[in-house]
Amino acid sequence: MTETTQTTKLTHLKQYDVILLFENTTKEVIKGEDTDLPTDTHVVTYVSEGETKLDAVRAHRMVDIFDGYHDRGLSVKRIDSGYGKLRPNLYNPNKPEDKNKK
Questions:
Q1: Under 8 Å between Cβ of 17 and 9
Q2: Fewer CB within 10 Å of terminal CB in the chain, N or C?
Q3: 94 falls in which pLDDT band (50, 70, 90)?
Q4: Any domain includes 41
Q5: Which residues contact 60 (CB under 8 A, 6 or more apart)?
Q6: pLDDT in the model for residue 22
């Protein structure tokens, strides 16, 4: 997938208030990052170009996720929730490094 396609997908999902955390990933990777992800993380299983793929996304409502993927022309097979351990208001993917850490 080219960078232009990825940017377009990010921009498209943003219109639906869906934030793409991991693209084309596995459940094992998501479970490995579970302690660093917010509780509003969802795993979307969809078909793109005949291939089944998984993305990890954030959204307030599952219908926003479905609409974003469906309107992009992707066939959504399932949306799973129950991932992440952080409260959504405490999640900061761009947190600065602690200067006191050695």
A1: no
A2: C
A3: confident
A4: yes
A5: 17, 40
A6: 93
The whole-angstrom separation of Cα 78 and Cα 65 is 10
CA angle 59, 43, 67 (to 5 degrees): 50
Residue 40 belongs to some domain of the structure: yes
pLDDT bracket for residue 98 (50, 70, 90): low
Whether 93 is covered by a domain: the verdict is no
Q: Which two tokens stand for residue 18?
A: 């869906």
> Is there a domain that residue 92 lies in?
no
Residues 68 and 13: their CA atoms lie apart, in Å, by 5
Domain range holding 15? 3-87
Please tell me the distance from the alpha carbon of residue 42 to that of residue 40, in angstroms, as a whole number.
6
* pLDDT tens, position by position, 44-87: 999 999 999 999 999 989 999 999 999 999 999 999 998 999 98
Instruction: Name the domain count of the chain.
Output: 1
Task: State whether the Cα torsion 15-74-46-80 is positive or negative.
Answer: positive
